[in-house]
Each structure stands twice: as structure tokens, then as C-alpha cells.
Amino acid sequence: MNNRLPITTVAFLALCGCGYSWSPKLIEVTTAKGEPETYFACTSYVEETTEGENYEVTFIDQSGSSHDIHGAKTVAVSDIPADVKVCRGQ
What we know:
This protein is mainly β. It has 1 helix and 5 strands.
């Protein structure tokens, strides 16, 4: 018997079977220069990490472009309401 089957099943259920759903995100960033910028993340991959007192944000926007923003002073990530269509194929 394949010993990986139970691990694969548990991983699948953890990701898909527990009501997990991903919605597009609104990302508001204050840059190192203090300028506000707004983005829409349209894939399930949004990563926010700290760099000392600043933040790094990595995501893919509504046009499919990858962003890797370093040195952000503030970062706010929020869900976009389901009735707002900002991503292709939504």
C-alpha cells in the first residue's frame, strides 16, 4: 500500500475540504517615500513579511504582473466584496 495516500488526503482536505475560499485582495501600501499606492491581488498568493521596521509584499495583480514591493512603511490587505469584479475570469 502507498504510504503517501493518507498524507496526500489530509493535505487535500486541509486545503479544500474545510470551506477554504480565496477572494481577491485590496492591497494599500505606503511606500518608503511616504506615497500611498493601491493594488489588487488576483491570485491566492499574497505574502507580507517584515524587513526590520518596514514591509515586503509579493503578489500578482489583475493584469497578471508580479509585484515585489520592498521598504513599505505600511501595508493593509483586505478582502474585495464579491460583487466587485476586478480580476479577469472572476
